Amino acid sequence: MKVRCFSSFTFSYLNRARVLFHSLKRFAPHWTRVALITDKPPPGLEFPREDDPFDEIVYAEDLPIPNFASWIFKHDVIEACTAVKGPFSADACSTGADAVVYLDPDTCLFAPLDPVERILESSSILLTPHIAAPEREFYAILDNEMGSLRTGTYNLGFCAFRTDGEGARFARWWADRLLAFCYDDIPAGLFVDQRWCDLVPAIFDGVAILRDPGYNVASWNLSNRRVSMRPDGSFAINGVPLRFWHFTKLGEIADVMTKRYAKDNFQVYEIWNWYRRQVHEATDPEVPAGYWAYDRYRNGARIERSHRLAYRADPKLQLAYPDPFAAGASSFFESQVLDAAG
Amino acid sequence: MTIAESLAAAVDEEFYRFTYGDLSPGETAAAHYEREGWRDLRDPNPWFSTRAYVERYPDVERAGIAPLFHYLQTGRGEGRVAEPSQHAEAFRTRLTGGRRFIDAAHAEAAAAIELEFDAEFYLATYPDVAAALLDPLQHFVEQGWREGRDPNAFFSTKGYAEVNPDVVQAGMNPFHHYLVAGRAEGRPVRPDVGFRYEILAQLPTVAQRLAWTPPIPKWQVGDAGQLRRATGMMIRSGRRRLHVSVSHDDYTATVGGLQLSLLREADTFECRGVDHVHLYPARPLLFTDSDDADPITGVLVNGLRAGLFPASTVAEVAAGVADKPGEWTQRSLSIHSALGHNTPALVKILRAFRLERGFFWVHDFASACAGHNLLRNDVEFCGAPPPESVACTICTYGQRRRQQVADHRRLFESVGLTVVAPARVTLETWIAVNALPIEATLVHPHCRLVPREAPPPDVRERPLRIGYLGLPNPHKGWPIFRELVFRFGREHGIEFHHLGKAPQRGLPIVFTEVDAVKERPDAMAAAVEDLELDAVVIWSMCAETFCLVAYEAVAGGAMVVAPEKRGNLTQMVRDTGQGLVLDDERALFDFFESGRVFELARDKREVRYFSLEYSKMTADLVGTQWE
């Protein structure tokens, strides 16, 4: 099966993406590895490096997104990086690949993903749920089950689909929705791309839900997953091979949640510690902390979230300011600053 | 208001009694002050100094009335000044052992935790506090807890804060909270993450481990001339036999199980009139030295230190010595460890001595991995899976492993080696994890248990005695023993003992200093017997190649409690029947919790005693060929 595998990220997540793509190179060497970057390289960064494991690099601004500047201005960094997954996926259906696999940049493979290809021989769309077993403890229900109710049943750190039939139909639908409604707006029933996929098993045929505990292991499902090492040096989750881990929220929050649910399953900490070291080694000092090229007006001023929300909400503003990043006379920036000044 | 009424209201009973301890129980402080106290210039309360008042206003003394009464009646109205008592400070800090707290909340916290605060532990654990001559309780209450320091060996300040975030949000000292509220509420005291979490959090990299041993200063390194002179003096003329041994350190300088074994080997060769040369790395590394092609090598000749020399110099001098006509017609070799050696350089030395064959002792599994006890990330026995496995990928030793195996391969391909393991199970494991060319294999135990008669123990009513023998290392099971002490050490009729070189502070453990030396190798077994330890917990994390302490425990009449699949430790417990094997840590805690551990008491079983008959190591193996 010809697989086009991609991850969507900014330069701030380049370090994590490098770790993921090295693992793809090791465990899925026959897949085409594409870096989808919604960003522009920071000054002084040598990119791509010679040893970078990307087969292709696609910048979001080169995707078929009408009025790109206006469109991306409506999104914060997470919304933007998530939304571009849609148009990329739809586009990938006409690249000659048989299937498309998406992985978040903070995931990492620990074994081949061959079973994904096998499932896609008989299914069109493949999703992994956040949790695949009921919780028992009060806090686990709050964190994990109610968390899934808020943010979506399926974790879109992974998804896979065929590029024909229902798979292609899904990709087109997903692209359309994400171009128009990929927002972090939980009160409105939206959480970037995830809540949309709650609808997928209802709308499309050939949807496979992968409940194998070896996939998409993360702090939100550790309460029901136990890691062990097998004599051959591979890791197992509840006795089945560990395929990939989702190292969400690298940092203190991840540590607290991981400890809460991993408890004395020390192999979890071994895996996390290794990942932390890998990310550290893959970090370029040239990437400033929190860097994102679309985070500032052209005059260097940071774009307030309220500015994005105002622009997003008002089609008249979008028409009046097709390039909202501009600064200076008669710019959107000026209008916002003047508004604020009262 | 009468004088008595006025004074009754203003004299501080508690202050007065605290400051002047001679009051009879039947008399009030006010009455005493009125009758005679003021004449002795006693102070009636913290805010009034009798002496200061009468010195400032001599007319008061002349009037012959109690100065405090004077002040209250007229002095105050006249604008006269009352000064605080010089005893006020002592009274204020009486509850806090003389400590002065600016913040009343600190004083309250100190008073609440003082009983369970372990000052000795605190000073031993935080030498900066001791060095600054700070009061440990005051330091903990005012700033130590904010810095995550622990008040005793049982309580983790950070751990409690982590699992009780509301306490942190309230800005409260976690230990104070635990004592006044958390304990009664049954709150968790730390994250339930196990001791391996801490090991992993502090796990050093190979590069850091290498940096622990600094390079050898040049002035310590000798030249060929010095080595020739030294060997010339130390080698006994006329001896026909030579034994060369190789290990990871100078066995005459450090004391441990392996070093004592090497001493026995050396002594036996000496008794048999064999010249003995020992080679060790000047930098005692935990890995083979593949970075330095000519590392500094230490040389002992017949037990005497010849000095430190570049390996190439040792090879050069060895070639000259070995070529002497008529010398050394028989040569033997034992390699106890190649750690710290550069194996190509070592091979050159062995060739120079014309050594082509020898014995390779299995004291660890360093020939299979840079983690010499096959503990992945120092937390789990891994059994040396394929180097390209995920386990090796995420292991701190993984990257160095290929190099270390290659270094051993060079050694095994250059010298014909017979592998000697101290136990059958160890040999089996070694063969399973290595793919090196070997000449033959042998099993030769470091010691044997020989039954002996011993007087029946003096059986009296006493707590069950559970011991831990040796250095408190994680891979030897110290954290598990400590956890047992945490859970069962303060009640439950169990007395925990630690036999070793230095005590661990802050825990309810009876410490006995035991230092095995050449003259008294069975000191540990004797101590186990003297203390009448009922059982010894040896909860090793790795596959033990031999585990001498298990034999020492059994020799002294104790039962050994050990985990499954720990190499010869598990095997010897099964073979001797002197102990029991438990599946895992949960089973161990159940064993204590359920009270079954009391079945190991000496008065509940037949106590058997043994002598330890030590092997002469390689001397046992080559001697027979010569005689």
Q: Quickly give the structural class of chain A.
A: alpha/beta
Give the overall form of chain B: elongated
How would you state the average pLDDT of chain A, rounded?
95
CATH architecture of the largest domain in chain B: 3-Layer(aba) Sandwich
**Tally of discrete structural domains of chain A:** 2
Q: What is the CATH homology-level superfamily of the largest domain in chain B?
A: Glycogen Phosphorylase B
Describe the structure.
- The complex is a heterodimer of chains A (342) and B (627).
- With 342 residues, chain A is α/β, with parallel strands linked by helices.
- Chain A folds into two domains: 3-281, Spore Coat Polysaccharide Biosynthesis Protein SpsA, Chain A, CATH 3.90.550; 300-341, no CATH class.
- Chain A contains 14 helices and 14 strands.
- In chain A, strand 11 and strand 12 form a beta hairpin.
- By secondary structure, chain B is of the alpha/beta class.
- Chain B folds into five domains: 3-90, no CATH class; 93-192, no CATH class; 205-354, no CATH class; 356-444, no CATH class; 451-614, Rossmann fold (3-Layer(aba) Sandwich), CATH 3.40.50.
- In chain B, the strands form four sheets. In chain B, strands 4-3-2-1-5-6-9-10 form an eight-stranded mixed sheet, sandwiched between helices. Chain B has a six-stranded parallel sheet with strand order 14-13-12-15-16-17, with helices on both faces. Chain B has a two-stranded antiparallel sheet with strand order 7-8.
- In chain B, strand 1, helix 18 (257-271) and strand 2 form a beta-alpha-beta unit.
- In chain B, helix 1 (3-10) crosses helix 3 (29-35) and helix 25 (523-530) packs across helix 26.
- Chain B starts with a helix and ends with a helix.
- The A-B interface holds A 110-111, 229, 231-235, 242, 256, 259-260, 262-264, 266-267, 269-271, 273-274 and B 162, 191-194, 196-197, 200-201, 203, 376-377, 379-380, 382-383, 385-386, 389-395.
